[in-house]
Amino acid sequence: MAPSTAEVARARVTYQAEMARGLGRFFLPRETRCPWCGSERLTQRLRTRDWVQAKPGEFTLDRCRDCDHTFQNPRLNAEGLDFYYRDFYDGLGAETSAEMFSRGSSVKRFHASVHAVTPHIAPRAWLDVGTALGHFPAAARQLLPDTEFHGLDMGESVEQAAEAGRISRAYRGFLTELAEKELAGQYDLVSMFHYLEHTTDPKAELAAARTALKPGGHLLIEIPNPQSLSGKVMGKYWVPWFQPQHLHFIPLANMQEELNRTGFTVVAAEFGNAHIPVDLIGGLWFVLNRVLPQDDLAWRPRKPGRAARATRLGGLIAALPLMLAVHGLDLALAPIARRTRFCNAYRLIARRN
């Protein structure tokens, strides 16, 4: 259910006051070196906007010519991350996020992830990092009823996941801060589903995951593939860029090397089955959001008028047959994408040494 007009109006007061102070304060100074390898050989990959929530601002992704790491530059600081995450997974956007992750297609994908890891370990205790509302543990429990699932996230959604019974224990905070204090050596399996790209220091997150694992425990990672040809073809309209939330894009070879250095052995690495068939429909949605008037958004100065609302509704109705066709094309092309360089994600399973 969409937020009410009154809820949006109340949030608008806060957003407008924040934006009146300027958006520049949301960013750290621009990096001159690659945060992954330290190289100074950086080149701009693309400039884009927030096509998802339509919050204001421009964002740049730079690529390292030496290690091929892509990263947001300048990067959002803590205040900026709070501003751009707010009302997406919780608050005004909570209902939309919950609906997205509870769909049958998401459950099917979650089950595939479980099937990928169970040949390597039979987990008794599983920590899902970046669990949000806990939809992955809820789906995984259908296949692993004897496994105890815990969840960790920085927002209030993880507490809601525990209240709803999707996880048996909630940790609210950062893995890098809680690993030593509360989680050390507790888990057979730690999962990070499209989590690392959101973090400010992915290397520190991998080290923290190792701390939370028992010796011989396993780490399961799924993450966007920045070397996908889809990203090159679709440019700023490629869904996995997902600006401004995604901060780092790590090529598979870099990830494998860092896992080995951190004290893991990679036991499985694959592109195909990690692919999510959303590239075309997501790109079309971004274009529609660009050309059509916006909904009633709290970060807009005022509620859209009757004509703007009618134009958006009419545009979406007119585009519906195209959206259905494009979504069908995504699904039809998925088997090809999974076997080619158009695959948009990869999966790694690593054992703690």
From TrEMBL:
TM ranges are: 313-337
PANTHER family named in the record: PUTATIVE (AFU_ORTHOLOGUE AFUA_2G14390)-RELATED (PTHR43861:SF3), TRANS-ACONITATE 2-METHYLTRANSFERASE-RELATED (PTHR43861)
What molecular function does GO assign, one term?
methyltransferase activity
Q: Which GO terms describe its biological process?
A: methylation
Q: Which UniProt keywords apply?
A: Membrane, Methyltransferase, Transferase, Transmembrane, Transmembrane helix
Record's protein name: Methyltransferase domain-containing protein
Q: Which domain of life is it from?
A: Bacteria
Which Pfam families does the protein's record reference?
Methyltransf_23
Q: Does the keyword Transmembrane apply?
A: yes
**UniProt keyword rRNA processing, yes or no:** no
Which organism is this entry from? Streptomyces boetiae
